[in-house]
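Thread: quick sanity check before group meeting

JM: Hey all, I'm pulling together slides for Thursday and realized we never actually wrote out the predicted structure for the chain we discussed last week. Dropping the sequence here so it's in one place. If anyone has concerns about the input, flag it before I start.
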Amino acid sequence: MKLKQVLATMMISALTTLAVVWGYGSFQKSNNSYAGQTQGSLPENYKLAGLKDGALPPGTPIDFTAPSAAALPAVVHIKTKTNAKQVSNSLPRMQQSPFSDFFNDDLFNQFFGGGRMNIIPEQKASGSGVIISDDGFIVTNNHVIENADEIKVTLHNRKTYTAKLIGADPAVDLAVIKIDASALPFLLYGNSDDVKIGQWVLALGYPLNLETTVTAGIVSAKARSLGLNKDKTGNPGGAVESFIQTDAAVNMGNSGGALINTDGKLIGINSAIASPTGYYSGYSYAIPVNIAKKVVDDIIKFGTVQRGYLGIQYTDAADVAEDQRTKLGMPETAYDGIYVTQLPSDGAAYEAGIRKGDRIQKINGIEINTGGELQEQVSKHKPGDKLPVMVIRDNKPMNFVITLRNKAGNYDIVKNDTKLDLLGADFTNLESKKAKEYGVTGGVVVKKINKGALYDQTRMKDGFVILKVNDKDVLSVDELRKLVGNENTITITGFYPGYDGLYEYPITLD
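JM (edit): ok, ran it. Output follows.
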């Protein structure tokens, strides 16, 4: 089978939220950085494994027993449950009903199929996680815990806890959960930038609902971008992917588990496999720990990731077609770097002096040849950070310093609109001209429905105009945010331009 065909069937390793449905059947001060980290000496699990300095003595023959012994106590089994849910089948009428003169809208819908509720049954799934502090912070994949109503964590010693979700970032496919415990074993961070192709690595987790399992392999590639992730709006363009590729066996249930080096230090979070069958057949993929620890720090400190943006559109220089190189002013032999195809004039890169046609070769002194490598370097930084960038323009090197911005184009801390985000849609204020045309005082337009409660629980369509939440008027997105607030259940009322009647959508947000 061709590689392209294999990658086309790429599955999230452990596709835990689907494949195991119904199935069941801290940080050292110098290593780790989140506020509240454990201060002091080496974790006991490393001492007991014989890694007294957190590393194997120089010249030690390759032996996986010590790193395995150090890491196994810090890798956990995660089991989730998603409660049964009612989903509204309410749909806008495509034309005015001939019976609308005889029945009111609600009564007509009741008799002729509108407003029917479907039941999504309870679902169970499982995956893995890594303890990253002695007080119970655990990192795993977003897809392991996504939409879960209950998260159970079983330690290596078989003790089980109920975990709470601290935060998640689907763009990187990472989540942070916490259990109420102390004096736990935990993994030290390694440095994924130092990972070399060909070096030995170990993958630890709970594949196929088995007990803790260790597999070994080598790093076969770095900075792989596979097109698996999407941001919270469902947009793949907002995702961050720069996987470490290994040939260590990873299967369903390994998601969220540890990828470690021979010193027993965490260098990645296992996330995906390339497979035509859904089971391991050669390659597995892990999120580099240097990306993961930035995401973890942000989630714990801010509740959401503080992501910096260069403000460019780009393509790998190697992917530019031969017949386009002359038009773009690129040397025929220029296959290295990242080619800037577009950039807004109000973006961070343009302000710093970058222009369309520049070929980015280095970021922070690191050579860049693929989009995955670019994303990996940028993802380690937050808005306001200054990033040295070297480009080739007119066959000459030029150096710039880009001050990263947030998605809104400024340097502010991004707040976590948790409940509004759960709706999973892009909203905009209804224009006053349109409001007058529709005969309303104002409202909020559902511009685009992505992945979230509106998609999962309703049949709402793009273009719906929200007028009320829980019978309270909504005149702007800010009012919508306040009314959604911390509510666990809401009822959205509104209409579809061009069609008669109001529609109500009950939604659960807990």
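AS: nice. The domain at 3-81+125-302 is CATH 2.40.10.120 (Thrombin, subunit H). The chain has three domains: 3-81+125-302, 313-403, 418-508.
JM: adding both to the slides.
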